[in-house]
Design brief:
Elements (H helix, E strand, L loop, with lengths): L2 E3 L2 H6 L6 H4 L5 E8 L2 E6 L1 H44 L22 E3 L6 E4 L9 E3 L5 H12 L1 H9 L19 H16 L1 H5 L6 H5 L3 E6 L5 H9 L17 E7 L3 E4 H6 L13 H4 L2 E7 L10 E4 L7 H6 L4 H11 L2 E6 L8 H14 L3 E5 L7 H16 L10 E3 L10 H51 L7 H9 L2 H15 L9 H10 L10 H31 L4 H5 L5 H5 L2
Parallel strand pairs: 7-11, 7-12, 8-10, 12-13, 13-14
Antiparallel strand pairs: 1-2, 2-3, 4-5, 5-6, 8-11, 9-10
Length: 592
């Protein structure tokens, strides 16, 4: 069998495409010619076949990379179409004196005076991204006119404005530079594509951040053992009783109840509440229909209950003692409580002086709270007016001793003291003490709407840092090679916590990320094994660059801007929450 070099025409007859790698194969030897049915053809040598296979693999990689970039472009296109649709459907704010574009920032400081081209005088509040508000005033009396104008415009408009502060569902920041991109846009455009690629939700047992997560009102969770006064405390804060409320010495609240503002007083079943995309409870469907039967919503008009304009409350069933009650719940009570605590802005834990023992179920709930939301917890010793000073000292010491077994913290938590009723027959000194404690608890509630945006941006930053650590670790694992291929050495690494911890240390050293940002090696091993045959996925470079840009530029700049605007709003003395929590009748309040 003779050999000779093939020409370009002969190579074309083999059906080879015009790739540069394949064109270089013309210099290789071909075996032949061979004859079959009167036709002559050449067979590439083994070396030529190896080159052709390498060229084919290179073209396949290029096609895969182009397909990934095309998917990214399609995602950007869909996001842009949604943004344009939101801009077209966005009505102008009814609180503006005249039709004009609604800008979330005011460049100049607040001032009083005559606006150019308008007859009436205006007061423009520099609320920044934390509050979009402009109201008309007809006099130079800021404090009194502010309160009267806000009451005349209605509490509901103010509450709706606060709900849409900075990152409202109407997307008023869409045309601003990248510095002021909303967290929802940053998540959808720069973090969500990488999460899909890496199956982030399945790996870490979490859920996608929906639009309702960013636009929902702050949530206050109230929990405790049965008959500790949870429902009574919520009624005191609301200054009204929510629909379906039952109060008694026996366990009365047997459901999770979300108290929110609505058009009228009504009760909504849990199935309807979780199916509503505008509510942040969609993730609760994973706990099953048994839980949804024990979950409901209580709606109250915001005109009657002003505090619901900027807050929502969750009343919980009393935690019982004994294993029979835990088995009889037929749903994951600790898991549900952990979800509410993780998504709540403030967690109030109530204790009764007569029920200081912490049951096993209550202990598991408190341990779950301490792992995810320790900074949100506020302990309240209710019904404290029934104790004298000596009994109060003993009860307080017993409570601290019980909490020390559950809360893993070197600092002693602060415990608020609250009376069971506002009608107190106490000495002036004791009455002043309970009033000061109540005012301190009210101040904690005042901070919730102001800190809601900062908390959500911080949560997004924490989620993004975990996503970056996971992506870099997967990249490191895909570089592993062994004498028998990559699959075997990869399987050996992800099933051995010691080897996996060593790979995490390599990633931390090469990228400059603190090693503490990575989950524990045992947790990672369990999660990798749970993923089955596809524990790791390729990490496209464009998606990783977008996530790095969001973590290094967009979110830190957004945090700085939100903090500065919040501080300025406080310095200007905006009487926002004092007005919302003012429950006096509209006529008497307007007569000030």
């Amino acid at each position: 069998m003779s050999t000779r070099r093939s020409s370009g025409n002969e190579q074309d007859s083999l059906g080879v495409g015009p790739s540069s790698e394949i064109l270089r194969a013309q210099e290789l030897d071909f075996e032949g010619p061979m004859a079959h049915n009167g036709l002559k053809f050449f067979v590439p040598s083994q070396r030529a076949m190896q080159k052709l296979n390498l060229a084919h693999d290179g073209i396949a990689r290029q096609l895969q990379q182009q397909e990934t970039e095309l998917m990214t472009l399609r995602s950007d296109r869909d996001t842009m179409q949604k943004r344009l649709q939101n801009v077209e459907e966005d009505p102008s704010m009814s609180m503006w004196p005249s039709p004009r574009p609604c800008l979330p920032l005011v460049a100049e400081p607040p001032r009083f005076g005559r606006r150019a081209g308008s007859r009436d005088r205006s007061l423009t509040l520099r609320a920044g991204p934390a509050l979009l508000l402009a109201v008309s005033a007809s006099s130079h009396q800021p404090a009194r006119r502010w309160r009267s104008v806000m009451r005349s415009n209605g509490i509901r408009q103010l509450g709706e404005t606060i709900r849409q502060r900075l990152f409202g569902s109407e997307g008023r920041l869409k045309e601003l530079p990248n510095l002021m991109k909303t967290p929802q846009m940053i998540y959808e455009e720069k973090l969500r594509p990488l999460e899909k690629q890496l199956q982030f939700e399945s790996f870490y047992d979490t859920a996608e951040l929906s639009a309702a997560y960013f636009t929902s009102k702050p949530m206050v969770l109230v929990l405790g053992q049965y008959s500790t006064g949870k429902s009574t405390l919520i009624s005191k804060l609301l200054k009204a009783e929510y629909p379906g409320l039952r109060i008694g010495p026996e366990p009365t609240t047997d459901k999770f109840v979300a108290i929110m503002g609505g058009p009228s007083r009504q009760q909504l079943p849990g199935f309807a509440l979780c199916s509503n995309p505008s509510q942040p409870f969609g993730q609760l469907q994973r706990f099953g229909s048994r839980f949804l039967e024990r979950f409901e919503g209580a709606l109250m008009p915001e005109e009657e209950v002003p505090v619901l304009s900027c807050l929502s409350f969750v009343d919980t069933p009393g935690v019982l003692s004994g294993d029979k009650q835990r088995v009889g719940r037929s749903y994951d009570f600790e898991g549900v409580m952990g979800w509410f605590a993780e998504n709540a802005d403030l967690v109030i834990v109530l204790f009764d002086p007569n029920k200081l023992d912490i049951s096993d179920e209550f202990r598991r709930c408190l341990e779950a709270l301490g792992k995810k939301s320790e900074s949100k917890i506020r302990f309240v010793l209710n019904k404290a007016e029934k104790l004298d000073r000596f009994e109060l000292a003993r009860v307080f010491g017993a409570l601290m001793w019980s909490l020390s077994k559950v809360i893993n913290s070197p600092e002693m938590p602060h415990v608020f003291l609250s009376p069971a009723s506002n009608q107190l027959d106490l000495s002036p000194e004791a009455l002043a003490f309970f009033q000061s404690e109540g005012e301190r608890l009210r101040q904690e509630l005042f901070q919730v709407p102001l800190d809601n945006t900062t908390r959500k941006v911080n949560d997004l930053l924490r989620r993004g840092r975990l996503l970056r650590c996971h992506a870099l670790l997967v990249q490191q694992l895909l570089t592993l090679r062994g004498p028998f291929g990559r699959r075997k050495v990869l399987r050996e690494t992800i099933t051995d916590p010691v080897k996996l911890a060593a790979e995490c240390a390599k990633v931390a050293q090469s990228s400059g990320i603190p090693l503490q940002d990575f989950p524990s090696a045992a947790t990672l091993t369990a999660q990798f094994l749970k993923m089955g045959d596809t524990p790791v996925q390729e990490v496209p470079s464009p998606l990783l660059r977008k996530a790095e840009e969001a973590l290094s530029k967009d979110i830190p700049a957004l945090l700085d801007r939100v903090a500065s605007e919040r501080e300025q709003m406080i310095q200007e003395g905006l009487p926002m929450l004092d007005l919302l929590l003012d429950s006096r009748p509209r006529e008497s309040a307007a007569s000030e």
